[in-house]
Design goal:
The protein is of the alpha/beta class and 402 residues long. The chain contains 14 helices and 18 strands. The strands form three sheets. It has a nine-stranded mixed beta sheet, with helices on both faces. Strands 13-14-12-15-18-17-16 form a seven-stranded mixed beta sheet. A hairpin with a 3-residue loop joins β10 and β11. α2 packs across α4.
């Protein structure tokens, strides 16, 4: 899509055409396109169909009410912050008293929209002309244009000294896909950190796999998950230097410390196995969760916590374990057949076996459900068989472990 194609979507004809495609079936695109081209220019029809597909995909990230009013680029929709995460982060800045933010590398404007909805004035900057046009259109579509100035510029050349905070979201994808080296971000992480140091408050969005040793000493490092999926990490400046935080959405529920506990000891598998939330694991706060559960690791190198009692916690999912076995497909297949397990969830940590590969080999059949963990226990390849996740309301009556 060129800027000219996008501009056509903003005309009255383009808007009406796009609105008419809200519920169209992409599987019927050829027939729909043929019909529409009898009444509209072919380039406009192609642009509208492409935009309609992007809006449908964006519903999961932005919700239907916003997604069907917003505009997207193919890459911009993928890279944009999920609305729930952007709203949470904007709330943290608002709680700091921030009333103006320079949003550098703004993309399609998802973060700028979340900030403006809290009454924060935003300068949104991006270098790509089409992305800038989309971000500007989104501010107008959601009635926030009075608070969002969208500017086409190189973010490294923009004066942000008049803004109370800076938010930087460097590009972490290139022509060959995802970029893992922070210095290969665009702009590099080192530039983002230097810019953040010059602001009263700042936040830098980074990949959740960033090494902890790359976190500057004066920054707070936060890992954020949404409904159990790790979405991003953020380096905060002007908040709590040296603090490590795991934030779980919805909530938010926050586990944080400035003085991490040492790794917990490993021991035998107890009645319950706890799978820590991904944000907790990425933040290296498994020890803090284990301490709350009076638990231990099943292996010094594996982030599964085990305990003899069930203690509900938002920071980990609990499973009741029925069997701890050495790894063996024949033995597992026989056990599942004996128990009539046809609904099988396979989880792995520290195992080379892929879940789908295991399912094909054991061919589960039956009405019952179970979860199998492919992992290591005390260094040995093992299989842990358990129930589906235990919710607090499902807590069984106390009985001796064994």
């Amino acid at each position: 899509m060129t800027p000219e194609d996008f501009a056509a979507l903003l005309t009255p004809e383009g808007r009406a055409l796009l609105d008419s495609l809200r519920d169209y079936d992409p599987g019927q695109e050829l027939a729909v396109a043929t019909r529409l081209r009898r009444e509209h220019p072919a380039p406009l029809v192609s642009a509208a169909l492409g935009q309609a597909r992007l809006r449908q995909r964006a519903v999961a990230k932005f919700g239907a009410e916003d997604a069907f009013r917003m505009y997207f680029t193919p890459g911009g929709g993928e890279m944009a912050t999920r609305a729930s995460v952007a709203s949470y982060r904007a709330g943290r800045l608002a709680a700091l008293g921030v009333r103006s933010v320079a949003d550098l590398c703004c993309g399609i404007g998802g973060d700028a929209l979340a900030l403006a909805r809290l009454g924060i004035r935003v300068l949104a900057v991006d270098l790509d002309p089409l992305t800038v046009a989309v971000a500007r259109a989104n501010a107008e579509a959601l009635g926030l244009a009075d608070l969002i100035e969208v500017r086409e510029a190189d973010v490294t050349q923009v004066d942000v000294s008049s803004y109370e905070a800076v938010f930087i979201d460097p590009a972490r994808r290139g022509g060959r896909g995802r970029i893992f080296d922070p210095e290969s971000y665009s702009p590099p992480l080192s530039w983002a950190v230097e810019t953040a140091r010059g602001a009263k408050h700042a936040a830098i969005k980074i990949a959740p796999g960033i090494p902890h040793e790359a976190v500057p000493a004066e920054a707070e490092a936060e890992w954020i998950s949404d409904h159990g999926d790790v979405k991003e990490a953020v380096l905060w400046f002007g908040t709590a230097p040296g603090t490590v935080r795991a934030t779980l959405l919805p909530g938010p529920r926050e586990l944080l410390t400035a003085d991490p506990l040492p790794d917990p000891q490993a021991g035998p598998v107890g009645r319950y196995l706890y799978e820590p939330d991904g944000a907790v694991i990425r933040a290296h706060l498994v020890a803090e969760v284990a301490a709350r559960l009076d638990g231990r690791l099943i292996d010094p190198t594996i982030a599964y916590v085990t305990a003899d009692e069930l203690r509900p916690t938002p920071y980990a999912t609990a499973y009741e374990i029925t069997d701890v076995l050495p790894f063996g497909l024949k033995k597992l297949k026989a056990l599942l057949r004996e128990r009539g397990v046809g609904i099988l969830t396979v989880k792995k940590r520290g195992s080379a076996i892929e879940p789908e590969e295991l399912r094909k080999k054991v061919k589960p059949q039956g009405p019952n459900a179970a979860t199998v963990f492919l992992t290591r226990v005390g260094g040995a390849p093992s299989m842990l068989i358990g129930s589906p996740p235990v919710r607090p309301a499902d807590r069984p009556a106390a009985r001796p472990a064994g």
